[in-house]
Structure formats: C-alpha cells, structure tokens
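2024-03-11 09:14:02 INFO receiving multi-entity request
2024-03-11 09:14:02 INFO entity count = two
2024-03-11 09:14:03 INFO echoing inputs for audit
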Amino acid sequence: MMLAVAAAAPTRSARSARSAWHWCWLTPLLLFLAVMAGTAIGETSIPLDTILEVLANRLWGAEFPVDRIDAGIIWSYRLSRAILAACCGAGLALAGVVLQALLRNPLADPFLMGISAGASTGAVSVAILGLGAGSLTLSLGAFAGACLAFGLVVVLAHAAGSGTGGGRATQAAGAIILAGIAGSQLFNALTALIIAKSASAEQARGIMFWLMGNLSGVRWDDVALGLPAALAGLAICLWYRRALDAFTFGADSAASLGVPVRRVRGLLIAAMALVTAVMVSMVGAIGFVGLVIPHAMRFLVGSRHTRLVPASALAGAVFLIGSDILSRILVPGQVLPIGVVTALIGAPAFALILIRGARTR
Amino acid sequence: MRLAAEHVEWRVHGHRLLDDVSLTVASGETFGLVGPNGSGKTTLLRVLAGLRRPKVGRVLAAGRPMRAMKPHEIARAIAFVEQQADTLDRLEVRQAVALGRTPFLSPLRPWSARDDAIVTQALTDVDMLPLADRLWHTLSGGERQRVHIARALAQQPSALLLDEPTNHLDIRHQLSILRLVRQLPVTVVIALHDLDQAMDCDRIGIMDGGRLVAIGPPREVLTLDRLRRTFGVHADFLDDAVEGRQVLRFRHAL
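2024-03-11 09:21:47 INFO inference complete, emitting structure
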C-alpha cells in the first residue's frame, strides 16, 4: 500500500507547480479508494457497487435495494472502521513528523512523551482495578492516563531543562526525550504491576491485545472524535510548516530565523500529544506508523514540511487502512492485533525505501 | 544598523560568562571579536543576536531595546551564523538557503518569485550557485559553512553576526568569505580566531574571561603586551612590504 504511494510520488527534480496540482485531486482519490478497499475486503467480500449503493442510500437518501445485513456491515461496521483507521494513521504519522522535527531525533515517535504508557495504565486501572466504578469507559480511562502521563513528562522536562546555559533550546530537546523515557518506564511498570497483581489470565490477554492496537468495535461515535482530531492536527502542522522547516539546523538556528521556539514547540507538542491521546484511547497503541511513515516520506518527498506534512498524513492513513485489511484476512477466522501487522508489513517496506534512498544519493 | 550592548551580564549556574559588557557597533562597521577559547565571544554574539535575553543590561538594535522586539522582527534585522549547525535531513543546498526567508513568510504570505531571486543572489554571493541542487550531506565542511552564510544573507539583514565563520574553510575560501563580509553594506560583528584576519576589521573588541578588555582599531589594541597578557603568546610585528602594513608573527606560547 505504501509502495504504491511511493511509486506515484513526484521525483526530487520535478518540483513544478503542476505536480502539486496533481496531488490536489490524487489525494482524495487515493483516500477514497483506500476507504473503499477497507470496506469491501474482509471475511465476507462485498462488491464495490453494493458499497456505493449503501453510501448513496445513507448519504443522499437514494433507495437502492440492498441486503440489510450487507448494509449493516458496510455502514455500521466496516466504513466507520476504515475511516477511523485513516484518521489514526494520519494523526500518528503527523505526530511523528512533528516530534522528529522539533526534537531533532530520528527515534522520536508519538509515544515518546509517555502517552501510550499512560494510556495503558489508565486502561488497566479502569478494566482491572475497576477505577470509576463502572462510570468510566476503557477509552476515557486511557485518555485520562495518557494526559496525566504527558503532563508529568512536561513537568519533568521543564524542571530538567530550565537553568541550563549555552545552546539552551537544544538542551531542552534532550530534556524532553529523557523525561519521556523516564515517564514511559514509570507508567509501563505501573501497568505491569497492576496486571501482575490483579489480572486474571483472560484479562491480561485482553489488555495485551488492546495495547497492540485494536480497531474492532469502532463505531461512528469514535469517528466523530477521531476525524476532527486528525483534521485539526493536519491544520496545525500545515500552519506551522515553515517553523518546522526552520528547526532543520536545530532550535537555536530556528530562533535566529525568528521562530518563537518555546511557544511554537510547546504548542505543537501539546497539540500532537492530544491527537495521539485521542487516537490511543480509541484504538490502543498502534506502533510503527508514527516512527517510520515520516522517515519513509522524507525519503520520498524530501524534508520540507510543505510536502512532508500532507504526504505523511496521506501515507499514514492509507498504510493503516491497508494494515487493518491485512489484520482481518491474514489469518482466516482471526483478527490479528493491528500493531503486529503494521510492524510486519512496515519493516520490510521501510527497508526497501531505505535501500532505494541510499541508491539515489 | 547600529547595534549596542549596555552593561550586559550573562550567568549560567552562577558562573559569569559575560561580565558588564558594553559596546556600540556603528552602522556599516565591521567589528571583530577576538579572545582565547572560553572568553565569551560566542555568548556575546548570541546575546547580540537576540537568542539570549540578558536579565542584567540590555541590547539595542537601531536604538530599539531588543527585549521589546518580536522574534521575527529581530530576524529580519539581524542574521546569525552559528559556529556549528548540522542536520541529518535530506536537504538540498537551495532549500537550506531558502530557510533564510522564514522571517518574511507566514501562512498568509507565501513563497514568491522575489524570494527565489533573493536566494539565488545569496547563493551567487558565496559562490555556491553551481552546487544549488546538491544534497547537504554531500557537502564538505567549507561548503556547508558557505551555505550557512548564504542562508544568513537571504535574510537580507541590516546586521550580520558570524561566529568564527572561517573555521572549516581552506585559505582561498577564508579570504573570499572575509572579503565578501567586509564588502557587505551592513553592520558586521565577527568572532575570529585568526588575529591577522582580525587586523582587517574596522575595530576589534578583545574578550578575556567574560569581559571586554579592549576596544579600538586593531593596530591600537592588539599590542604586544595585550597579546602576552590575554592570549599568552609572545609575538612580533613584521613589516609587509607588499601591502605596506604590519603583520603578526607568533614566536612561542608563554
């Protein structure tokens, strides 16, 4: 799926305005096709015309005669799932782009700030410890945990990063990374402690599955939350694309180019943490997308965020829909955790891009 | 643009890196900063560039307190070339130079043909136009430094601050960069290690232990006594018959 995007991406030399216009209609088309594929493919394959008929019935009140079960699967189950997968993929990829750019660290990913660790602690607190006495859903617990962990990491990074001297802005990036690692370790340990002390084997397996990402059970309510979050993330990234570019030579260089480093960095990291927390609370911690999609897209479209941001959002969306399809059909009768699929498919695909990129140097 | 520092102090962990530094650089002047390692040249440049906001003392750009200026206002007036700034990004030379236009752009004021022309001019000025399409990581140290200077020039600054810009350059590019910098119709503050190169500045300031211990025309402040006390070297001035001026000859460390 990602390689298809790769083949269609414009080459480095072709930077005419025309190729930008091509992407204006190619992007929605690719997204639409991916969502259609995500809806059509599954344990029972559904022909495309049935999907289009159901869509027409639902959206424009057309009255095509369709099987009610098919209609139910398409509208209530697969379509919402495919759209949310696209939102999550885009959101996580964008968070990866931003964190890698701001922290000048190729290993930065959306879960760097302790968000997935906090989310899992929140989730097990609700699911196993029974926090909130049934009034809290798993998602709400995970979201609260993610925000709590992020807040703790920010406080820690602030305390560790202040009062330093030469290259202050650069040192702050180091402090954020270290605080994120400390926070993640703490919350991972808490999760492990709760599971080891209180969970039954069945619960432990369920949590394990949730942690590796799970898109089943996605409904339109989730889309209503995930779609605005992804779109807001995209808008913020595009608005600050030049500031992100300015971090190319480090935070001090960005400051000398007139970027208010502290404000921009704080705002972007907080926004991306929020987007990530929303996604994680709904579908669990899907790894790999946020780490590797930005790198893959840098190889394909370059480092300038005017192109990197939309390209990563698109690739993340398409990639996660593709992974979701594979997670449903790879083992018949069983749905694999999507985190496993993203890594299994993504790692070789990324290796190909790395090798291809090395040749073009 | 006139650039001034008034009684600036900068401390890190109680350690005083700048101690009561005051200086005024006149509009269009080329001002050299010299001093041994760790004397505070880089810190002073950062303060003058607005990257550090001192709690004690103030910095004035064209008479305006820099504290009251917005970051992009400062960046439109003052460009700063760091001593070392590297990137792992796959970046073309032209894209790196284009970053210099950042303070002039906003989401509502997009890139224009004029920006392209300014970037091309900056690349021409540093003799890097033929390499405009090369990737950053394929450049030599000297080429990278020239790209940084081109990026600063693309800011079309009224004042240009450079932190040892000739460090990685071969002698030909050292001389061409210094010549370029001197010819620019802007205020230049340049930290230099090579004292012979500093002799070509309009005025120089000598830093020692965070203090500005001497300011003036190079030949007046770079005395043999000063070279002994601040730099710890024994040196002589020799007559250069070709240019009819004096050059430094270092004898030995004290």
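2024-03-11 09:21:48 INFO post-check: The CA atoms of residues 128 and 200 of chain A lie 9 Å apart.
2024-03-11 09:21:48 INFO post-check: The mean pLDDT of chain A is 84.
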